[in-house]
Amino acid sequence: MHTAILSSLAVLFLNTVSGCEQFARFDMPSLFKQGDVMIGGIFPLFNKEIRSIYTFEREPPGVKSFRWTQVMIFAIEEINKESTLLPNITLGYRILNSCASPTNTLRAALTLASGPEEIKSTSTCPPAISALIAESGSSQSLAVAGTLGPFQVPIVSYFSTCACLSDRAKYPTFFRTIPSDYFQAKALAALVKRFGWQWIGAIQSDNDYGRNGILAFTEEVKKLGVCIAFVGTILRTHTMDKILDVVEMIKQSTVKVILAFIPEGDFYPLMKEVVKQNITGIQWIASEAWITAPRPSTPEIYKAFGGALGFVVQKMAIPNLKPFLTGISPHATNEMCTGNETLLYSQDMFFNVTQLRVSYNVYKAVYAIAHALHQLVFCQPAHQPAEKPLRNQFGDNVLFDENGDPPASYDIINWQLRDGQVQHVSLGHFASAANGDYKLSVREEEIVWRTGKMVPSSVCSNVCPVGTRKAQIKGKSTCCFDCIPCADGTIANSTDCTPCPREYWSSERKDACIPKTVEFLTYHEPMGIAITAVSLLGASLSLAIMIVFVKYRETPVIKASNTELSCFLLFSLFLCFLCPLTFIGRPTVWTCMLRHTAFGVTFALCISCVLGKTIVVVTAFKATCPGNKISGKFGPAQQRIIVCSCTFIQIVICILWLKLDPPFPDMVFRYSNRKIVLECNTGSEAAFYSVLGYIGILAIICLVLAFLARKLPNNFNEAKFITFSMLIFCAVWITFIPAYVSSPGKFTVAVETFAILSSAFGLLICIFAPKCYIILVKPEKNTKKHIMNCNMQW
Predict the structure, then answer these.
(1) Distance, CA of 759 to CA of 80 (rounded, Å)
(2) CA dist 197 → 226, 310, 493 (Å)
(3) Which pLDDT band, with edges at 50, 70 and 90, does 744 fall under?
(4) Buried-most residue among 61, 428, 595, 690 (CB within 10 A)?
């Protein structure tokens, strides 16, 4: 146990064997008691140096620091009375005042190291202190540790928390009984995280304690995304102008939470100025150096600092200390006292020994040195009763880690006003583990906040509303930002706008991705109903005309128009009228393949029949000329061959299309951001336009042949009607191509079905309407004489 202290003591004892010469000494008063082993103590009994006569009776010492000295004396005397810890060894002490100044602390340390003046000895090198208990301030401890460390003097601090003192390379003999600010920074950062504060200010003392404390805290909170708005620096020796600059910094800032990592003596002037200027509404976070200090704990200071939160080391009680304190005789230090005074019944806080924090650290420091001495002298650890500080507080006699620091354990203190007095109410606990984890427990419902019962909010910019993202403001902290609406198709997360998946779109509030509207031509919408009705009408007319042709098949008009080809044509038109029905409804693999191939084959059959009829008409009327035998070469067999062969070519094209790159259902996103258009992708564009091109070639051939027969007799010139039908057909499909390419979404399907129905009705009406008119309306013209009556000019 305490190997480092033990080795330091061993080296120190060896150094005292050699002779040395003292050139001079500082004239510093002390509390002194001779012993076999001397322990030094340095305490800030005064906050300023008394330059006249430097004695205790000139100005009453600080109550806290004076109690620290008495606790050290009490612990030494308690150890001397025991027979187990250091038997046959008497501890002595010499205690000096530092005035809370690094310079005076160094002067006191050198005085203690040089040997006590009180001993009148002829030795050339009187025994120096074996260990030193010092100091309360980190800057003072840095001065002492840096000076006495090379001489292997063990130094145990009771209130210096700067993390810089944990550097074993620089300060190998420095130890402390109070946790390092490294752990306090973690505790403060955990508190900030617990209450969700993102934008805070900081005030530091212009010394090692403040600067290193804020640095450690800043490193911790940056990991949590917390921003430090400003860092004000003050010291008790600063001018009022510098203090007012910090006050102005607080007033100009938007922060609602400020951490003050600063000793009470340096902070108090600023506290008074904050109260004077009535700066309220700030939630203060305190370091352990001032959260329980008595001087600022007044109703006046509470006006601005009420509800302050901070951490302090856990409070403990020291048995039998109160009788020792009440037994102090004022006559020993003040000649004005008679010696009959008693402090036994005093109610002053000085005598409250049930809630000791720093005083208990002094107590532990004395016992740590005593245990190290025991092991050095007796070569074995001392037996430690359960009620003593080392085992009672930490168990298994473990006090220091490898950096000379004790385990971290803090109470959470809240300033509350009760019965007109400021109370330091403990509302939680923080403890760190060896693996770096920590546990923070807070009774939030009992905290009195500066703003009342509600947890104060401290942010530079409010949380962005739904549907917006953070946009960093140039030149400002990352916690300060503007909120910019997310673009369509994106939703907001904590820092950015995230695009929705392809099949989704952002909601109106930009807070969720919702499925896009799926669009395709349906039977229940007006356009679908209209196409279905027209398609069924055309199919019905085709069947009706076919029935008429079958019924009147023996009449001259029907015979003259080639009954077989006419029925084939009507059947193909019937199929053409039904094709648009495959374009309605949700596209599937089968409907996509069917709609294009069925359209291509049925129209090829239709135009093939028209082509056959055109050839029949031309050859029939040419046969009326003398010596013309062409009609005999173009009978029914040839007509069937033309129709089948022309249709077969289209069937081959469609089979190749379906085999190599067939049409398939596809989701199209380019038409609209908010909807998905379901349509049939043609697969192979070349195959699709080949089907259309082949139908176009057949139609052009029909148009040319019919045009050549335009001068046939007028009584029944079927070629003229075929010409009209082909003109309509070609006009429709020529117009279809640019309309098909430019139409968006389901209107593409509408354009294609319109072209199919228009061209089919053009053929049906132009070719069959005149015949039906004669058959049904003008039956007197349905005679062979009328049909064969040629113009005299023919």
Answers:
(1) 121
(2) 7, 15, 20
(3) confident
(4) 595
pLDDT band at residue 122 using 50, 70 and 90 as cut-offs: very low
Residue 578 vs residues 458, 526, 536: alpha-carbon distances, Å: 71, 18, 7
- How far is Cα 189 from Cα 218, in angstroms, rounded to an integer? 9
Task: Please state whether 169 falls in left (phi above 0), alpha (psi between -120 and 50) or beta.
Answer: alpha
The reply to whether omega before 135 is within 30° of 0 (cis) is yes
When pLDDT is cut at 50, 70 and 90, the band that residue 396 belongs to is very low
Enter the pTM of the model. Answer: 0.63
Characterize the bridge pairing of strands 155-157 and 131-133.
parallel
Question: For the segment 283-316, what is each residue's pLDDT rounded down to a tens digit?
Answer: 999 999 899 888 899 999 999 999 999 999 888 8
Q: Report the C-alpha gap between 641 and 481 in whole angstroms.
A: 81
Please give the single-letter amino acid code of residue 730: C
Write phi, then psi, for 72 (nearest 5 degrees): -60, -45
Question: Which pLDDT score, from 0 to 100, does residue 82 have?
Answer: 87
Q: What is the pLDDT of residues 159-195, one digit of tens each?
A: 898 888 988 889 999 999 988 888 899 999 999 999 9
Mean pLDDT of all residues belonging to the chain: 82
SS3 content of the chain, % helix, strand, coil (to 5): 45, 15, 40
CA distance 98 to 45: 7
| C-alpha to C-alpha distance for 288 and 178, rounded to whole angstroms | 10
Opening angle at CA 771, ends 788 and 694, nearest 5: 105
Cα 404–405–411 angle (5° rounding)? Answer: 165
Query: Could you tell me which residues come within 8 angstroms of residue 613 by beta carbon, excluding any fewer than 6 positions away?
Result: 561, 562, 565, 566, 569, 718, 722, 767
Per DSSP, 606 falls in state H
Cβ neighbors of 262 (< 8 A, separation 6 or more) are: 203, 204, 205, 209, 210, 234, 287, 289, 290
3-class state of residue 512 by DSSP: coil
CA–CA separation, 25 and 43 (whole Å): 19
Q: What is the pLDDT of residues 60-100, one digit of tens each?
A: 446 788 889 999 999 999 999 988 889 989 999 999 998 88
Half-sphere CA count of 414, side-chain side, radius 13 A? 21
**Residue pLDDT, tens place only, 7-32:** 454 444 434 433 444 445 566 777 89
| 715, 789 contact by CB (below 8 A) | yes
The stretches of 355-414 forming alpha helices (DSSP H) are: 358-378, 389-394
Q: Which two tokens stand for residue 191?
A: 């508190």
Check residue 449 and report its DSSP letter. Answer: B
The residues, ordered by sequence, that sit 6+ positions from 462 with a Cβ below 8 Å of its Cβ are none
Which of 374, 371, 361 lies closest to 141 in space, CA to CA?
361
Q: How far apart are CA 113 and CA 94, in angstroms?
A: 11
* Residue 381 CA neighbour count, 13 Å, CB half: 12
Pairing outcome for strands 199-205 and 675-681:
unpaired
pLDDT above 90: residue 534 = yes
Is residue 752 within 8 A of residue 581, CB to CB? The reply is no
Angle at CA of residue 566, ends 711 and 735, nearest 5° = 70
> How far apart are alpha carbons 237 and 240 in whole angstroms?
9
* Interatomic CA distance for residues 274 and 259, integer angstroms: 14
Q: In this structure, what are the phi and psi dihedrals at residue 134, rounded to the nearest 5 degrees? A: -170, 150
**Helix, strand, or coil (residue 131):** strand
Question: Beta strand 497-499 with 490-492: parallel, antiparallel or unpaired?
Answer: antiparallel
